[in-house]
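Re-run with default settings, no changes from the original entry. Doing this only to confirm the output is reproducible before filing.
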Amino acid sequence: APAPSAAPAAPTGPLDLGRFSTVWNDDVLPSLGGMTKAMYSIGRIVSVGDGVAVLGLPNDVHRQKCEQKRVDVEAVATAKLGAPVRLELIVEADGHGDGGGASSGAASAGRPSPEPEEDFDLGSTEVHELENAPDGPTGGLDALTDAFPGAELIDGASD
């Protein structure tokens, strides 16, 4: 009788969004370590097809950092899926997707959608016109005397 294999083979078949999302969230992300896991967890699976999974990221700096570990993450995804996977890392225009289609819901499986950030208009106000802005630069001795009220500054060296 043949010896049982150490691990069951991953299901084969075409790579689709549902299957990839499940494996990505349940197997791939937990297998990543430290910073790589944190960086890739922020991404959103945008689409999957022809062995390519498109991962949307919030900005280009984040995409560049993820790109440094892309080959390692592809190797983990390939091992977990039992089929070759290539990751395409893109920047989503609004930082969290277009908000439409079936891919949005499946891609964020198990994660709440981020709330949109409010836009604040600071106008053309100068920093020095703000109420809480200091009149001038502070630092050095001013910072020390502010930090220790009642302290006395003694000039000169003691013998």
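The radius of gyration is 26 Å. Strands lie at 44-49, 52-57, 86-91.
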